[in-house]
Amino acid sequence: MAVKYEFNESNEFVIQEYHKAKTFSSFLPGIAGIDGIPMWSFYVNRGQAMGSFGVKDKDNTIMEFFPANTMYKNVELQGFRTFIKYKDEIHEIFSSMSRDVFTRKMIIEKNVLKIQEINETLNIKVTVTYFTMPKESFAAIVRKVELENLDNEEKCIEVLDGLPQILPFGVKNSDYQAMSNLFRAWFEVNNIENNIPYYKIRGTTGDSAEVTQVSQGNFYLSFTSESQGLIKPLIDMDVIFGSNTAYTKPEGWNCSIEEIINQEQVATNKSSGGFTAAKTTLKDKFAICTIIGHIAKPELINERKNDFNFKYIEEKEKQARVLVENLVQDTFTKTSNPLFDKYVDQCYLDNILRGGYPLIIKNNKKNHVYHVYSRKHGDLEREYNFFSLEPAYYSQGNGNFRDVNQNRRSDVLFNPQVEDFNVKQFMSLIQADGYNPLSVKGSTFSLNQDYLEEILLHIKDKKDGMKDILSGKFTPGHIITYLVNNHVDTDIIYDEFLGKVLLISDQNYEAEFGEGYWTDHWTYNMDLVETYLSIYPDKLKSFAFEDLNYTFFHSPVKILKREDKYVVVNGKVRQYDALLEDHQLNIKNTNWLRSNNGKGEIYKTNLYAKLISLALNKFVTLDAYGMGIEMEANKPGWNDAMNGLPGLFGSSLNETAELKRLINFILEISLEYQGDVNLPIEMAELLKLAAKELRDYFQGSLNDFQYWDRTSTLRENYREKILYGINGEEEKFSSKEISDIFENFNKKIQLGIKHSLDYGNGIYPTYFHYEATKYDLLEGKFNPVNGYQNVKITEFSCNPLPLFLEGPCRTLKILEDKETARRLYNSIKESEIYDNSLKMYKTSVSLENTSDEIGRARAFTPGWLERESVFMHMEYKYLLALLKSELYDEFFKDIQTTLAPFLDPEVYGRSVLENSSFIASSMNPDKSTHGRGYVARLSGSTSELLSIWFLMMAGKNPFAFEDEMLSLCLSPLLPGWLFDDKGEVTFKFLSTTKVTYHNPKKLDTYAAKVEKMVLVNSKGKSIEIKGNRIGEPYASEIRNKNKWSIDVFFNEA
Question: How many other C-beta atoms can be found within 10 angstroms of the C-beta atom of residue 119?
Fold first, then answer.
């Protein structure tokens, strides 16, 4: 049978003969519910699929973690194995070495994975189901193996099923792979007498004077559809495989099941596995269930041993499905294309996995927003990323500023109760120098200590442990995990106790500097601002001006002055090692800008002041030609693989376009609300001096280089003054003064953007790098980090890089008319950025003639990773920009060859419901890769798709505030072909309100008009409205998620 990709009647993705199909890796979502402990797990389409799983991160793996290309090779032998003995002959199911006649398939659901082999030689169908355990006090993966007899003849069979290696808790994956022979000296398996082997190490493995015992461990248990309770496991692989150390055949199984079970097993000083041995007379069906997981101590799993049976597993499998399906109900969509509808759900789920799902938690001041289920992306194809998934109730994870920010962009569109939480968090993480920490951690809480003793009255025993938790920073997971694992006796249920604690606690943002400063991270904050205002336009004044609780993150890192970071290396002038860590503050801590030069109170201000500070800092970081924003702090922008550009005095037009967008917003609200703003005196001085230098420039007394040199000096002096904190004094500016200054800033930016077109032949360039054509050695001065000779540059020449997609994509946001946008679109379509073969957009044209110094992208194979491939995130970002630019026909034509659900899975090579990080373009020398998706799912493409979906379904800025009245206007941007046979499209607005568009003529809605709308509330009350504008009180009720349904009727305009 040939490889075939298809969808079954439930729209689950099926790969017939998956073991012969193009290799790919993916994962189960690792969502256990807020009342469960998550486990991460990765699978591939080889062997028995499951490739690696564990808790928290790669350092706590249970099944050894390997990169994808290695996993494809070894999963068949090192992964799960199933041996069936029938008539004294052993058959291995799912083996590539099997001589049997069989067909196989893989079935991919959102939270369940199945593989199936119909073995025609045995006439037995074997189905394996995997899911991670939901709603439990332990993290685990569940494996269910079902054998079905396909004929009427009873079969006496014996089965060995299991995993050849289960790593004990306490040994890091990387350490084990480097020193596996050494580490077995620590290994032991105990608790076998309870039929739940417990895999652990006896003590810490570090070469340190401090040695501690390790109590946590990993466990294995199994039972069958015929067993009474748990089955005695086989943990010694020598018993099964004998002298066959390659584990290709179970050479030790030369006896009956009873005999192999009763053989003596060695449980120490070796790498152990876990197998289940069973014997049955197969009439109809027989099943084995195995649970492999992690727990704090063996007593906690032993006391549950009687709970484990098939009824329990059936309920858990159902919960696993329902848990995820309930989440994606937020994006319910019904169009003429069921795959598109399912794709939106999958994108929403994957978006949650990187950005988190916002829970609304009551507080006596303002409700908390707590994001659960998130983690930094990392998987078999992103083996370079150290992902982390908190193994706790209410699990949350770490993430990079850019990633989390983007993936939370649409939070308020699905749950308006999120309000301004994300704006406040990410704007507060912007520093007074305009940069931000890299690592955004999960939130913590601090209890109001005045209520500590009162809260502890609810606890009847083990108070000291809870007192320790509540006396410092904590998470909801810390509290519930302590209560559950220690069986704490309380006078109220655990969830109620947690609610009482959080009601009187403050929420803390947590972050860490990480490494370097990327030039693009701040740009996504305006997306958060705009999204918030699309739902809450009536709160602009309080949002921007009246909330004085915005802070400034403060990284203990110094950006070196030009005289310290500009160096000459082998006769070439470069900018290397631009950052210097300051040991006065802990680089791992969450630090905030304080008054009294760092010794006073945390400085707080409003959003308006934060935006002014951000725009000012970026404006004085424009390059010497006024076109791009400098990469002056060790890191590039969105395209990480251009990592060499900072060393080449690189700059980016992307951020300049975003700066103009930011300034446009500052000007808009400055004109709308006349008032004052207070700025720290250090910032006020920078603002006034920058304005003066710009006036001198416009008057002709400064040329481009002189202006750049002087504003750069202002920037450096300002940073020196705020290195440890600020004075605390403020200076007042009127909104008119701010407006006048930023109008001039905008003129300067516009000159640079216009000038940049000269370098791009009608397409805005993305990157520039500069060559120091004149410079002086600074005798006796050396870079404090690398020791290179310092120089002073007196002249630059500009060199644009070949064209990238990102520059035009960002610039589309600030173009003022549709026809200009259309000309740019046509120019890109005619350029090498467009892959004519795939009908997709690449990251760039060829980089073949560029220097190796620009970054690792130049060293990559063309058409792969960031070099000239189709990076789905950037392509989707471009598609979103087209839609916002009102290029509707162009957009709807392009998505039919670019969006995943419209692709051919035989070319794409994986489920078309799932995004990839990149698609190999036709530039790649290996033609077999063209159009194939690589690196699964967790990328910013999901955030772009959700923005696209919302625009398509509801239109831009659905809520308006005019004449002191809130209104809702639904203006969908839908093509006629997305309407079903009835001429209908249905979706959920704000995750609650069911909206059905009635369009029997299947008109493009952006060229049609709304004749009427019919609103029906939960009590059946019906209201008819002419036109497409819903006024009060209904607009507020819908925003408040009161139950309404809306029917919208279209006709020709």
Answer: 22
